[in-house]
Amino acid sequence: MDTSLRTLFSHLEDEEVTFFADLILPIPVPRLFTYRVPRGMAEILKIGARVIVPFGKNNGRVLTAVVARLHNSPPTGYQARYISEVLDEYPLVTSYQLELFRWMSEYYMCCIGDVMNVALPSGLKISSQSKVQFNPDFDYPELLTPVEEMLLTELKKHPALSYEELGRLVGEGGNVPAVIKSLVGKKAVIVFEEVKEKYVPKMVRKIRLHRNYEEKEQLLVLLQRLEKLPKQQEVVMRYLRHVPVQITPSLNQKGLDKSILNQDDELSQSSLTTLIKNQVFETFEVIQPRFADNLVPQAEIRLTDAQRQAAQDIMAQFERQNIVLFHGITGSGKTEIYIDLIQQALAGGTQVLYLLPEIALTTQIVVRLQRVFGDKMGIYHSKFSDNERVEVWKGVVSGQYQFVVGVRSAVFLPFDNLGLIIVDEEHETSYKQHDPAPRYHARDVAMMLAHWQQAKVLLGSATPSLESYYQAQQGRYGLVELFQRFGDATLPDIMLVNTQQEKKQKTMKNEFSSALLDELETNLERKEQSILFQNRRGYSPYMQCEDCDWTAECPNCAVSLTYHQRDAELRCHYCGHKEAVPRVCPVCGSTKVRTIGYGTEKLEDQLQIIFPQARILRMDLDTTRAKNAYQQIIQEFEGGQVDMLVGTQMITKGLDFDNVSLVGIFDADRLIHFPDFRATERAFQMLTQVSGRAGRRAGRKGKVLIQTTNPQQTILQKIIENDYRGLYEEEIQERQNFNYPPFSRLIKLTIRHTDKAISLQAAERLAAELTDALGESRVLGPEEPLVERIRNQFLFDILIKIEREKMNVKAVKAYIQDRINDILTDKGLRQVSIVADVDCL
Ligand code: ADP
Ligand code: ZN
Ligand code: ZN
């Protein structure tokens, strides 16, 4: 469809009309902005194209906006400014995406600009906040103008230049956005925002024989010459064992990681240095590929009978249903079934999106998928640099990527022909974005996308969310279940350990029950791997004075500070505040300051003391901050160099190891008794998922030990029996009794202010107004949340429950928004902020 202005208004004479465009600006203002279209631009401007516009006082800022509407009526109330530049000849944002932006801003009660801001990678948004860097991959295939040439020369001298600095270089009258646009088009520069990490390709130092020795004869001469220098000869031989140049000379060009050659001894180190100096070897650098590059292509997968049956059932249900829930136990081979379905959808000529939770996406599954789909598959991950995200975006537009595997933000990619969306681990709460707006749930957004593009949605999980299972029970989704592990593997045996009792009998060693220690020891002897799960990071969550009961608390938040031993500091997990560990109690001066409770760091420590010979790794937020850290830990564990892995919920997600036969779970009680109506469901999911890491291969039945003070709790029995159905029946009844989801929709309003009285006043007024309109049963609060002060802001929550069936949800949201706006514009309540979280978790 040609949406250019000339076509839209072809019935009008050119001279008579001034054209206007309604633009989505990447700012939190709840409306579109009307700009004037300069004469020459009318020919090319299209809905969905990006433009650059001036913004703010004296046009002081520059922003990238997206065209949402084209028309010829001037705005009322303000003088429209001119668009300065068009970035796209063809729409970058599809009509489906525009629809999605609109729907999301309405449904999630946020500004359309917020949606666009999150949707577009910052590399697609030139603004006065932009930084520009020279593209390290650029090799001058293009013609450059003198100005471009000059800027590139400057850019090469600096890591990056700001928009303003470029402006100064271009000089008065120069058009910075136009030059940047041109350079981006030529792939000579990369645009990014300062907050984000910039694109630096990771380099590996490699080594190869000097070209003079590539041929067999010269190589022989060299080896003879080195006869008298055995150390150097040994290094060359070592190289040849890895890279058999004598057989295939061309292999030499690829070389070998330098680290492999001089691994162990210092002698080989110095020999290597000499060999390099004497030009026998030469060093060079290459860009490290993001994922393994020499992947062995996957031989065709043969589904087992049970798997084939499940795949067929799913396809059959898609005949009648748009959404199918696939409930398959851990290790049943869901991924293999997905692969089969993806292949079918691609063969049908449609696009496929495969959503995974953040963490799961970093490793194993991606490698498995790559072995099947190779470089036809795009990967969209938040740990990737912006540049990499832009590449995927463009690959979807160009058709290079018919299939993308990605995290929740992948729902924003410019698909226009989706046939299938898979939401793996659909129960995962990380599909919901908490901050900033839009606070969307990727599973629900995926369903909207699918609805518009007539695609099918497959929700997969070993522990479905109650919401989804309920929909399946109601017949609104299809349901396929698979209760058999792949091969002859079976679900692990789960045992409960009564820590109360062990404490009485004094058989606990620190946090470890004797039962668990025995199993760990046996496992270590058998050289099998163990996973230990404690959903709390740091060394210990409290630091307290034994004499006066003082506890270390965050100065900005209403929480205790967590002790981190390795960095010898106290940290707030809410605001990031850090302080040194006090040697004496700051109140009474006592030296008896001790830590209470335990996190992963402490467990790792104690474990190492108990098993000095064991190789132990820890996986939590603190050990995985670096870009490749997560992958590294997984690889080491996979490679068998590690006996025990201690971790937070990170280790529960989608990992598939051959040799894990024991899982130990700490502090299950805390998960179960968390004060939230979803706590039971969550505990079941988390404990079942982490248990599912054990015994995933035939012939090695796994064992799971759960430490608890009360083995009688019914939920623990359900976990042991893998009784999802029983859990569902019980929980759904509760939800119905109290009118919680899936029987209602929840909207949480959080009111914040640095003055507690003002915060409370605003919250009470809002709650009263909403209660008046909606009735008491639908409005709960205001209430102080568990952590009632964060970053020195006092918080109050109001929870609104809206029945799914009877209420007009749209109208209710509009009403709530109006009441919020009233308060925000009330001068008596200055600086109050109110955040609406729709479908809050
Ligand atoms: P789930 O996601 O359901 O927990 P996975 O898809 O990770 O299970 O499968 C568990 C293991 O079994 C994986 O290592 C997988 O490669 C293997 N597997 C499953 N099905 C097959 C199959 N049909 N052929 C070969 N290997 C399979
Ligand atoms: Zn004290
Ligand atoms: Zn804090």
Automatic annotation (TrEMBL):
<dbReference type="GO" id="GO:0006302">
    <property type="term" value="P:double-strand break repair"/>
</dbReference>
<feature type="domain" description="Helicase ATP-binding">
    <location>
        <begin position="315"/>
        <end position="482"/>
    </location>
</feature>
<keyword id="KW-0862">Zinc</keyword>
<dbReference type="InterPro" id="IPR011545">
    <property type="entry name" value="DEAD/DEAH_box_helicase_dom"/>
</dbReference>
<keyword id="KW-0479">Metal-binding</keyword>
<dbReference type="GO" id="GO:1990077">
    <property type="term" value="C:primosome complex"/>
</dbReference>
<dbReference type="Pfam" id="PF18319">
    <property type="entry name" value="Zn_ribbon_PriA"/>
</dbReference>
<dbReference type="InterPro" id="IPR014001">
    <property type="entry name" value="Helicase_ATP-bd"/>
</dbReference>
<dbReference type="Pfam" id="PF00270">
    <property type="entry name" value="DEAD"/>
</dbReference>
<feature type="binding site">
    <location>
        <position position="588"/>
    </location>
    <ligand>
        <name>Zn(2+) 1</name>
    </ligand>
</feature>
<feature type="binding site">
    <location>
        <position position="554"/>
    </location>
    <ligand>
        <name>Zn(2+) 2</name>
    </ligand>
</feature>
<dbReference type="InterPro" id="IPR041236">
    <property type="entry name" value="PriA_C"/>
</dbReference>
<feature type="domain" description="Helicase C-terminal">
    <location>
        <begin position="580"/>
        <end position="740"/>
    </location>
</feature>
<feature type="binding site">
    <location>
        <position position="545"/>
    </location>
    <ligand>
        <name>Zn(2+) 1</name>
    </ligand>
</feature>
<keyword id="KW-0235">DNA replication</keyword>
<dbReference type="InterPro" id="IPR041222">
    <property type="entry name" value="PriA_3primeBD"/>
</dbReference>
<dbReference type="InterPro" id="IPR042115">
    <property type="entry name" value="PriA_3primeBD_sf"/>
</dbReference>
<keyword id="KW-0547">Nucleotide-binding</keyword>
<keyword id="KW-0378">Hydrolase</keyword>
<feature type="binding site">
    <location>
        <position position="557"/>
    </location>
    <ligand>
        <name>Zn(2+) 2</name>
    </ligand>
</feature>
<dbReference type="GO" id="GO:0006310">
    <property type="term" value="P:DNA recombination"/>
</dbReference>
<dbReference type="Pfam" id="PF18074">
    <property type="entry name" value="PriA_C"/>
</dbReference>
<comment type="subunit">
    <text>Component of the replication restart primosome.</text>
</comment>
<dbReference type="GO" id="GO:0006269">
    <property type="term" value="P:DNA replication, synthesis of primer"/>
</dbReference>
<feature type="binding site">
    <location>
        <position position="585"/>
    </location>
    <ligand>
        <name>Zn(2+) 1</name>
    </ligand>
</feature>
<keyword id="KW-0238">DNA-binding</keyword>
<dbReference type="GO" id="GO:0005524">
    <property type="term" value="F:ATP binding"/>
</dbReference>
<dbReference type="InterPro" id="IPR040498">
    <property type="entry name" value="PriA_CRR"/>
</dbReference>
<dbReference type="InterPro" id="IPR001650">
    <property type="entry name" value="Helicase_C-like"/>
</dbReference>
<feature type="binding site">
    <location>
        <position position="572"/>
    </location>
    <ligand>
        <name>Zn(2+) 2</name>
    </ligand>
</feature>
<dbReference type="GO" id="GO:0006270">
    <property type="term" value="P:DNA replication initiation"/>
</dbReference>
<dbReference type="GO" id="GO:0008270">
    <property type="term" value="F:zinc ion binding"/>
</dbReference>
<comment type="similarity">
    <text>Belongs to the helicase family. PriA subfamily.</text>
</comment>
<keyword id="KW-0639">Primosome</keyword>
<keyword id="KW-0413">Isomerase</keyword>
<dbReference type="GO" id="GO:0043138">
    <property type="term" value="F:3'-5' DNA helicase activity"/>
</dbReference>
<dbReference type="Pfam" id="PF00271">
    <property type="entry name" value="Helicase_C"/>
</dbReference>
<feature type="binding site">
    <location>
        <position position="575"/>
    </location>
    <ligand>
        <name>Zn(2+) 2</name>
    </ligand>
</feature>
<protein>
    <recommendedName>
        <fullName>Replication restart protein PriA</fullName>
        <ecNumber>5.6.2.4</ecNumber>
    </recommendedName>
</protein>
<feature type="binding site">
    <location>
        <position position="548"/>
    </location>
    <ligand>
        <name>Zn(2+) 1</name>
    </ligand>
</feature>
<dbReference type="InterPro" id="IPR005259">
    <property type="entry name" value="PriA"/>
</dbReference>
<dbReference type="InterPro" id="IPR027417">
    <property type="entry name" value="P-loop_NTPase"/>
</dbReference>
